[in-house]
């Protein structure tokens, strides 16, 4: 399994995975092309053989000195293999490179697996955003800050 910069040729697998994971809240092809080619950030794909089995899209906001996890997904057949954790590790590396002071994200309040992953990595809920998703459900806004605990450089 290889974690690498996303390529446009990854799109069919990513879009299929996106629909399986997020249904009506999925990003479309145009949005993914923007995230991969124009957005100020980084888009990682996880390749297994010929297939893409996970991805993460990160956005760097220079003014806010923050990195946002815009989207992360692991194909259902490849979960519980620490791929999500490796993508969070890549996020920490990227945030470090950007000298970001915090990492932010939104997660559906009912999404226990993702919330566990984030909490395990030191993210904390800052507030609830109501009516965030297509079905009217709310999101937790979470953040990790500082990136490194005091004393660790
Ligand atoms: C959330 C997601 C990315 C986790 O990916 P994964 O590769 O299966 O996770 P990992 O194997 O790296 O697990 C790392 C940690 O995440 C947490 N976790 C993962 N799956 C979990 C589950 N089903 N229930 C509870 N905690 C879970 C655990 O803390 C786990 O650590 P542990 O195994 O030591 O307990 C994956 O479930 C996914 O793609 N979900 C659908 C898309 C999604 O919801 N994205 C997040 C949008 S905000």
Could you characterize the architecture of this molecule?
Strand 2 and strand 3 form a beta hairpin. The protein is globular and about 40 Å long. With about 150 residues, the protein is an alpha+beta fold. About 30% of the residues lie in helices and about 35% in strands. Strands 1-2-3-4-5-7-6 form a 7-stranded mixed β-sheet, with helices on both faces.
Give me a quick take on this structure.
The protein is an alpha+beta fold and 153 residues long.
Indicate the topology.
Layout: E1 2-5, H1 11-22, H2 29-37, E2 41-48, E3 51-61, E4 66-74, H3 83-97, E5 102-108, H4 112-120, E6 124-129, E7 139-144
* CATH homologous superfamily descriptor: Gcn5-related N-acetyltransferase (GNAT)
Number of strands: 7
The CATH class label is Alpha Beta
What is the overall pLDDT average? 95
Query: What is the share of helical residues?
Result: 25-40%
- Using the coordinates shown, work out and report the CATH topology: Aminopeptidase
Q: Would you identify the CATH architecture?
A: 3-Layer(aba) Sandwich
* Low-pLDDT residue intervals, each spanning 5 or more residues: none
Rg, please?
15 Å
Q: Whole-Å distance between the termini?
A: 29 Å
Structural class: alpha+beta
Q: Number of folding domains?
A: 1
What oligomeric state is this?
Answer: single chain
Largest sheet: 7 strands, mixed
The helix/strand series, from N terminus to C terminus, equals: EHHEEEHEHEE
List ligands, each type once.
coenzyme A
Strand order of the largest sheet: 1-2-3-4-5-7-6
